[in-house]
## 1
Amino acid sequence: MPPKAKITREMILDAGLELIRQEGADALNVRRIAAKLQCSTQPVMYHFSKTEELKQELYIAADAYHSEYLMQFDPEKDDPMLAIGLRYIRFAAEERELFRFLMQSEHFRSQRMQDMTAMPELAPILEILQAEAQLTAQQSKQAFASLFYAVHGMASLLANNTIEFDPSYCSGILEQVFMGVIGFMKGEE
Amino acid sequence: MPPKAKITREMILDAGLELIRQEGADALNVRRIAAKLQCSTQPVMYHFSKTEELKQELYIAADAYHSEYLMQFDPEKDDPMLAIGLRYIRFAAEERELFRFLMQSEHFRSQRMQDMTAMPELAPILEILQAEAQLTAQQSKQAFASLFYAVHGMASLLANNTIEFDPSYCSGILEQVFMGVIGFMKGEE
DNA sequence: CTCGTTATATAACAGTTGTTATTATATCAT
DNA sequence: ATGATATAATAACAACTGTTATATAACGAG
């Protein structure tokens, strides 16, 4: 009996992400999304009864995209830890507004970054680190945390346009921090 | 001929900062500031013909407060580099909304943090670093940069409530990064 | 075909914002 | 005292927002 929907939930979420990407999270509202889809505001209100609900799902969608983005590196060629860090930074540079949007979120992935147990895909990486650098589980977690703070710091500055993105500069910093922290740990023993 | 102004520019700026502190930068608008000062919107529009102008001056005021905040440590007792870093982090924890507001600003101090020549008060600190750790000027700048990224990363995560503020944990991380980076530099020679 | 269901359009309401008249009032030079 | 004028209050406009009421049209079951 029902007409088939022209506007799907997914189309709305896509339009929302695109809007944030182009004009920033402040520009997010029902009418603008509708305009992007060339429809009225009704389909949007129909699929998401409250705008806040749409926003929450946009956080989830942006976070999923972010996660996927992070993992696009060559595990044969690159050290996973540094490669993920550099992807994290590149994301902030290339998807500035999405990164800023994500930072506002309560569900922000970085929350999980610190509790490694919540990110199963990182477990093998930490094991490699432990084995290669001969660290304890505790130490490798702490080394990861320190690196993550530097990574997030650079990313955050990039997303707010206070530094330029220079991949070789960034990886230099990351390597310095990472190797330095590991060296410091081993020196303390 | 003129009656003396009841509402001064400074009162407006103070009310604005207090508003951001309490309710976040999104709550900033002419009517709310007026309410805080128990006056109409006119005095605000009188002193700042456009709201954007007021916002710009609030950035400057917040930045000045931030700078002042950073320097409140005991130079006899604490290592300046680490102490300033810890103050930076503490600011993000205690003045969460002000930090988030500042991060939006184009004038954000961190811009200057990377170009040390723009922060004359840091010059003596860098000199001490060079002397004590026996680094070149270039190296000490780079060590400072790495430390700053980690500091800003932690601060940013704190301001967005994704980690807890634990001073001893934070200074542990900072020391680790700082000593690590210096060690790494010297090991490379 | 016809009818009920449902996705959509149109339009409107209410609240909030920046901004701008218009009006009132307090001060001080005269 | 009084009048010129800087400051402020009141009120309103226009733009934008979330949300809802009403009407319309598309689709498929019967």
## 2
Amino acid sequence: MPRKGLNRDIVIDAAISLIEKQGNRSFSLNELARSLDVKTTSLYNYVDNMDELIGAVGLKAAKMIKQAELDAIEGKRRDDALFSLCTAYRKFALEHVELYRVVFGMQKNKSACTKEVYSEIIEPIIIMLSDYNLDETAKMHWQRILRALMHGFFSHEYTGGFTRYPVSQDETYLIALKAAASGIHNAET
Amino acid sequence: MPRKGLNRDIVIDAAISLIEKQGNRSFSLNELARSLDVKTTSLYNYVDNMDELIGAVGLKAAKMIKQAELDAIEGKRRDDALFSLCTAYRKFALEHVELYRVVFGMQKNKSACTKEVYSEIIEPIIIMLSDYNLDETAKMHWQRILRALMHGFFSHEYTGGFTRYPVSQDETYLIALKAAASGIHNAET
DNA sequence: ATTATAAACTAATACCGTTAGTTTGTCAAC
DNA sequence: GTTGACAAACTAACGGTATTAGTTTATAAT
């Protein structure tokens, strides 16, 4: 048939923009196909199935998160870099809610893809933590703690879990980061 | 027809045990109906629709979490209670993975149900924090931080986000809790 | 015994992801 | 320039999903 200039990247990018625009929930291969002016089954030329597509979207999203983190720490060191990275992470999540949820909504088993996703997100954090005098083990602990904190904070913030009391969420985040920084300082050799 | 003794509670409980047994992903009204030996459409006598059912399941799960938290802090005070509650929370999540994910997988908008869910989970944390000399605002901040930490930690732990390096996850959790406790001490008046 | 209510049903709709098999455009080799 | 291979896009179909509308029928109250 009249060849449209479709390829895997275009399909995945279209999926991303559709998810960002209309949300995770209502995303479907049918809608994706329509947005590309193609029949649904044609998508299977570029994608194994729904799960694999979501995996690819998630990976691309993870790379965006990584870049945001890298940008945030550029030229900064220690606590400066720490606060900047964590702020950028939260900002990205809030500005790309639907996409962010794809990254962390991916199922356990699915491919080795999750590993790759986490690698992307972790790397800048490791770089940032390398400015502290931490042994390898401590670095791993704190990289985990920061990720847990950032993700957990956003999850609650997004779903309205922090709206029960009229207290600034920015302030809460700041206090959490200060406590983390303090913990990291104590762990320094 | 031959009346089975069905009612809303039975339906919701059946949904819970089906979700716990077979997982979130494959849960469907068809399977639920089959497990109750009833046609799918009969379920609509007890439940508005899928979302509302999931909401009810999530609320019940939240109450289970609350109870686990309450049990954990019984007879304990301050740091003892803090560590115990956080440990129990994590334990519950790990032992009821699929159910836990229902609670935090619920969508934003849906009913006022999310509010109620969070209320359940928060209450024991507030009780626990009341043993510290914190003003109301600080209490709210730290209640949020603890929730963020616990949820974020479990999320990563469950999806394998902490398996990249061979460092004890229990140890990481402990370090995080110590940092939180330290932060709380500093906030005391 | 009659009647109202609600529990369970049948039938149907509009989606969804996915597989199999078919047409057809494009590009390379001859 | 024609031929042939390849892959892009298609059509058709299947089994699954949630959901609505309308129907039977068992039970409880009168």
